[in-house]
Amino acid sequence: MRDEAETNRAIERYGDTVRRLCMIHLKNEADTQDIFQTVFLKYLLHDRPFESEEHEKAWFIRVTLNACRDLLKSVFRSRTVPLEELSTQIAHLTDERREVLSAVLELPRREREAVYLHYYEGYTAPEIGRLLGKNINTIYTHLARAREHLRERLGGEDHG
Amino acid sequence: MDERIRDAFDSIHAGEELKESTRAALANARTRRRRPARYLAAVACLVLLVAGIGGYQFYFAPTSVLSIDINPSLELGVNRFDRVVTVQSYNEDGQALADTLELKYLDYREALDQLLASPDISERLAQGALLSITVAGENETQCGRLLAGAEACTAGQENVSCRHGNAEDLEQAHHAGLSLGKYQAFLELQALDPTVTAEDVAGLTMRQIRDWIDALEQGVPAEGESQTGGQSGHGHHYGWHE
């Protein structure tokens, strides 16, 4: 079991990443809190050392995505969460940011994940393929489609 | 577009409240995970308790019995380490003798030495009374060892006999309210005169019982209960254990 200093450091270092991954999957704060705690509890109990910071970060991304998917698959979660709840989460942001995030969050789930990992975290398509256990071409396809959708939605100055 | 997406995501942070509730959840989890140590401690205590009770049984359970009969009749329960763990008297004299001596937890040889040296017994022996030491128990090896030890302790005594008993007789002796040594003498007597009962011999000294047996064996009609006994056998080692 990891000590308090280690988990506190991880919360500070990876908290934002976990929070953002939660946001692209979940639409309400209660679920985000559940996943947040689940991920760091897993870290608490994960005794094996990481080879590097990259390895550790990839671990957090994978665990968070899996936890989100499990939650969404859960039989208890037959209810659908209205999109309005999400808008309260980003209500404090500027119009520009809110518009971009809304556009990203309207994409299909696979595309959302690919967009976040590529545009924000800076992973390449092969890296995303390894991280998600998907075929690289599938990732390229997701990214291409997402880019298309976003261009339509946000306007054309695409450099990606 | 890359820049806009990056900037938008950059504005999303894990709030302090979220981090704090997670830190609290982790602290809880740590406490819960530590709790098994407490259960382990409880289990360890239980094991110690059971081991303690087992150890107590192991040490304090008599595995053999030394029946000492002269007329004070005593039985010394001896544990597997050859130490006296119980002292049981079978008549008032025996009780009085047991009260004057501290035999518990002594090595059985020391206990025998103390008994033989006690004024009560040594005077009776000097007057020609017979002392019988009977060893019985489930463990033949220990019985053999105890018998040899008892014989060594009493080697200098003329009127002492040591013999083997058996666990079955021991149980029946207790059932009849007699010590083992006296019960075996009673069995010998009963073989010669089937009308004799355990009550008849309960108050007699070993010398009286022995004289009664001798009288019956010699065909002399003897009134066992009226025998005074004890005066005729000075210096005579009774070998009635053959």
Structural account:
The complex is a heterodimer of chains A (160) and B (242). By secondary structure, chain A is mostly helical. Chain A folds into two domains: 1-80, Rna Polymerase Sigma Factor, Chain: A, CATH 1.10.1740; 93-155, Arc Repressor Mutant, subunit A, CATH 1.10.10. Chain A has eight helices and no strands. In chain A, α5 (95-105) crosses α8 and α6 (109-120) packs across α8 (136-154). The longest helix of chain A has 22 residues, at 4-25. The model of chain A has no long low-confidence stretch (mean pLDDT 86). Chain B has ten helices and five strands; from the N terminus they run ααβββαααβαβαααα. Chain B has a five-stranded mixed β-sheet. Chain B has helices spanning 2-10, 16-60, 92-100, 108-117, 119-126, 140-153, 167-176, 180-192, 198-202, 206-217; strands at 64-69, 73-78, 84-89, 131-137, 160-164. The longest helix of chain B is centred in the first third of the chain and has 45 residues, at 16-60. Mean pLDDT of chain B is 82; it is low at 224-242. Chain B is rod-shaped. Chain B is an alpha+beta fold. Chain B folds into two domains: 2-59, no CATH class; 61-218, no CATH class. Chain A binds chain B through residues 1, 4, 7-8, 11-12, 15-16, 18-20, 23, 32-33, 36-37, 40-41, 44, 90, 93-94, 96-98, 100-101, 104, 115-116, 119-120, 147, 150-151, 154, 157-160, and chain B through 1-15, 18-19, 21-23, 25-27, 29-30, 33.
